[in-house]
């Protein structure tokens, strides 16, 4: 399951990078929020800051499951969190697949799928 955890954590790199660009005001809004904004308004950028924090927590969780990072919580608690993230990223697949933005559907749906599968494999297999 170590490979799944590594792949799952690496799959976040393009997403975290995109979200940093969106926070900084780059015109990549078509890949997020249904493509509603080309440049995300300043007052909405906090959403992406929160998302980055959640994604970093998810990365830490999956890497703790396979002992790449030391456990912060007990193993059973970390495993429960991993299952929660697996469910959350599974829902993300559907949200991205149903997006009004073609760019978001094409890019974010497969990334969400990879991440969700890796979280499920890691949570179940460890």
- How far the N terminus sits from the C terminus, by CA atoms, comes to 7 Å
Overall residue-averaged pLDDT value: 97
Give helix % range.
55-70%
Order of helices and strands: HHHHH
Please give the domain count.
Answer: 1
Helix-strand makeup class:
mainly alpha
Number of strands: 0
Shape: elongated
Describe the protein in words:
With 126 residues, the protein is mainly alpha-helical. It has one domain. Helix content is 70%, strand content 0%. It is built from five helices and no strands. The chain has helices at 2-10, 12-23, 46-65, 75-97, 102-125. α1 packs antiparallel against α3 (46-65), α1 runs antiparallel to α5 and α4 packs antiparallel against α5 (102-125). It is elongated. The mean pLDDT is 97.
Helix-strand layout with pairing:
Layout: H1 2-10, H2 12-23, H3 46-65, H4 75-97, H5 102-125
Helix pairs in contact: 1-3, 1-5, 2-3, 3-4, 4-5
Task: List the defining traits of the structure above.
126 residues, 70% helix, elongated
